[in-house]
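Morning F.,

Quick status update on the modeling queue. The single chain you submitted on Monday has been processed. Sequence for confirmation:
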Amino acid sequence: MGERLAVLAGVRPWWPLVEPTSRWVRVRIGDEQIADSRRALLHVQYGPGALPRSFLPTYYVPMVDVVPGVLVDPVEDGDGLTVWAVQTAAQRVDDAAWMHSSPVEPLQALYDIDHRAKRDQEALAWLRQIARLDQHDRKAYRLLLERLVETKQFAEAKAVGEAALFVDVENPAIHSLYATALAETGDRKKAVFELESGLACNPPAEQAAQLHARLAAQYLALGNRDKARAERAEALRIDPKNAEAKALAIP
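Structure tokens below.
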């Protein structure tokens, strides 16, 4: 269906467009109007693929065209994105409105959309594109590496980890994620090196405890129980509540 609609739309670039619309945009929840605007902008992506991947229209309206008081409980993510719940007299809808106070690049915007909608595979695809096109984007590499490890795609995570270190070598989280990929693909000795490198980056106490706990697990897998005990003890000294260290049983 997406491919047929792309043909009907004519020749279009695959990346998203943002353009003014002549439409009079009115937004309702149930019978209550929450926005009324003749100045909306339309964000849309054209291209072949499965819906809603290929056509993803979203209207953005000026804040002054939103009914006062309906946007409640704002949550900011630290990167310029604010998300609100919408509250009317009759009902509440969480995560129903958002605003980018610092507009992001098109691919990053598409990643944000899919990530918020929990379309994990689509979000991962955009992260791959961002990392490929901007090989100095530290955040993109960290997010891509995190998602690959979370989804147990360790072979790809190992390759991405090597690249991520070149752009963010002083980030202990990168060393830890890369170590996980190395360990899961059979290279535990190199995983130990990366975890020790992460500790050399002077991480915060909680993160340092996590690195020591993961070192303990790797030493145990390598058959070095003495070092495993020492690393586990150090993890618990730094953070007595560290779950990984507490769960690690060393005979």
